[in-house]
Amino acid sequence: MGYRPADAMAFPRFEGISTFMRLPYVQDLQGVDAAIVGIPFDTGATYRAGARFGPQAVRNGSRLLRPYNPGLKVEIFEHLSVIDYGDLPVVPGFIQESYHKIVEGLEPVHRAGVVPIGVGGDHSIVLAELRAAAAVHGPLGLAHFDSHSDTWDAYWGQRYTHGTPFLRAIEEGLLDPARSIQVGMRGSLYDAGDLQEADRLGLEMIATDELFDLGMDATAERVRRRTGDGPTFVSFDIDFVDPSFAPGTGTPEIAGPSTREVIRLLRGLRGVNAVALDVVEVLPAYDVAEITAMTAANVIFEFLSLLALRRAG
Fold first, then answer.
1. If pLDDT is split at 50, 70 and 90, which confidence band does 1 have?
2. How far apart are CA 116 and CA 296, in angstroms?
3. Does residue 195 have a pLDDT over 90?
4. From the CA atom positions of the chain, what is the Rg in Å?
5. Closest CA to 240 of 257, 216, 223
6. DSSP secondary-structure letter at 195?
7. 252-296 per-position pLDDT tens digit
8. Among 5, 177, 219, 295, which is least packed, fewest CB within 10 Å?
């Protein structure tokens, strides 16, 4: 029997140390299929800081989750052994030092054949996550859900922020643009050319207006087709969700998908070969009644369900 959550019939959900879904806190990777990994770094944020407290909030927001996903008809822990791996060490205020520690912490997880699910932290952490994943799997496909493309070159002359990681990742050869897609871009821009950067880099993009025109199922099909069968990184910025459903984030943009639409979209990703995933930019200081943290926790629950289905065949 693999690792699974504590029995809620024996221990009420408000009891115990706060881990994701009340999974065991374990750092031995033997017999593990997936690991929840907190990455509490937010020095890459360019507007609101505070996502360093995101992993703690998401863990608290996951307490009510149960093992069976009725929408996908799968009991996750019949097919997956999952742990909470705890948080990786970071160096607040020092992004390069933090990148080194994140890569050092994640690369052994990949080499053990475990799928890490990173919980941020701001979106700058994804560059280190991609470095660790690509060191083991080679250049990755990308399924990126966000209201921002995060392909800017620099902010205030700084090339490493939460607005630049995917440009840096392509420059470093960590991503295969031909197998990469970005979904959900919306909001005001600095100029008309901002979204053209994705085309220049070879990325496919589905902006929010097109997302709603296509619908969630057709969009999911586009993502599956683009990423193909190769190893893929799935990155989910919580500001992909409309701020009426997820107010606790650093750079909110109105007129996005509802939580119902998000779940429909994610369930359509069945079959994507995800070797790593993350959920980032949860900022609990701006949250209301834990709704952002619970949304992020449910996104991870859907990710785990997809991994379980893939493992079940």
1. low
2. 16
3. no
4. 18
5. 257
6. T
7. 999 999 999 999 999 999 999 999 999 999 999 999 999 999 999
8. 177
Q: Which CATH architecture has domain 20-312?
A: 3-Layer(aba) Sandwich (3.40)
As a whole number of angstroms, the distance between CA 179 and CA 171 comes to 15
115-120/34-39 β-pairing? parallel
DSSP conformation class of 19: -
The pLDDT assigned to 61 comes to 98
User: What is the C-alpha separation between 28 and 41, in angstroms, rounded?
Assistant: 23
Q: Report d(CA 139, CA 179) in Å as an integer.
A: 10
Length of the chain: 313
CA nearest neighbour of 63 among 307, 293, 302: 293
Q: Write the DSSP string, 84-126.
A: EEEEPP--TT-HHHHHHHHHHHHHHHHHTT-EEEEEES-TTHH
pLDDT in tens, 9-56: 888 988 889 999 999 999 999 999 999 999 999 999 999 999 999 999
Q: Is 29 exposed, middle or buried (0-12, 13-18, 19+ CB in 10 A)?
A: middle
- Residue partners of 57: CB distance under 8 A and separation at least 6: 248, 282, 284, 287, 290, 292, 293, 296
Report whether 269 contacts 275 (CB < 8 A).
no
**Which pTM does this prediction carry?**
0.98
Cβ proximity of 255 and 298 under 8 Å: no
Q: Which of 66, 1, 76, 33 lies closest to 309, judged by CA? A: 76
Calpha distance 279→296 (Å, rounded): 7
CA distance 142 to 182: 8
